[in-house]
Write a structure and sequence with these properties.
By secondary structure, the protein is mainly α. It has helices at residues 18-25, 29-48, 51-57, 62-77, 95-193, 196-209, 226-235, and strands spanning 7-13, 81-88. It has a domain at 3-93.
Length: 236
């Protein structure tokens, strides 16, 4: 057996239905449609549900269930009565049973705490995993950027070396062309210089530069005929 210390029913009688309600049910209309009715509905509710449901699982629904049940019959048989609210106190149960419920609640609370701890641990593990994954992705991205930078630097160095080689080859080619051009022009100039008059002049200058003075009893005789020299050069 369980008992409820107190059940409060807040109600109101519509002034338009006062005469009809008092005529049909008297001044103690609330005893018929509220006081006796609430006892009946509580008994019906407890009969249809287990102690676990009444005391714990569905206790938060009793107020609204009682309000709807009383208002339903009042609306049908005494329409002037309006049920505003119903408040039911926690039922009294035997001490041994209450202790069992308390132990069960403690165990349920421990289980819920364990579940929540497990969820927290899983969440932390998931967070750590995401952090590690993010760190790995960041390191991979940094490595990729560094590798790309190294490749770019090597490519730039290779390109610079190639440009330097091309500049060196171009400079050497230009020097070779200039030297060839100089030699060619000198050869052409020398070719233009090799005229009979120029050769004769050079011959005379050579003879003049090699003039020797002899002293003694016998002096060599030298006969120079420029025409003979010119003929000899022409034949050569």
């Amino acid at each position: 057996m369980i008992s409820f210390d107190k059940i409060e029913v807040v109600n109101r009688l519509n002034k338009d239905f006062v005469y009809e309600t008092l005529l049909n049910y008297g001044v103690h209309y609330d005893k018929t449609w509220i006081y006796d009715k609430i006892h009946h509905e509580i008994n019906q509710f407890c009969s249809a549900h287990s102690l676990q449901q009444v005391y714990i699982d569905m206790f938060d629904q009793i107020d609204e269930t009682m309000k709807e049940a009383i208002q339903r019959d009042c609306t049908r048989y005494a329409p002037g009565i309006e049920i505003i609210s119903v408040r039911v106190t926690k039922p009294n149960i035997p001490v041994s049973i209450r202790r069992n419920f308390e132990l069960m609640e403690e165990e349920r609370t421990k289980a819920l705490i364990a579940i929540e701890r497990q969820k927290v641990a899983e969440k932390e593990a998931e967070t750590q995993k995401k952090i590690a994954l993010s760190e790995a992705e960041k390191n991979a991205l940094v490595s990729k950027i560094l590798m790309q930078q190294m490749l770019t630097e090597k490519d730039s160095s290779k390109r610079q070396q190639q440009i330097d080689n091309e500049m060196f080859l171009a400079r050497e080619r230009a020097l070779a062309d200039a030297n060839y051009y100089r030699i060619t022009k000198e050869a052409e100039a020398n070719k233009l210089k090799l005229t009979p008059e120029y050769l004769e002049l050079r011959f005379i200058e050579s003879i003049a530069n090699n003039t020797k003075i002899f002293f003694g009893e016998k002096i060599p005789n030298i006969i120079m005929d420029q025409r003979l020299i010119r003929n000899h050069l022409d034949s050569v």
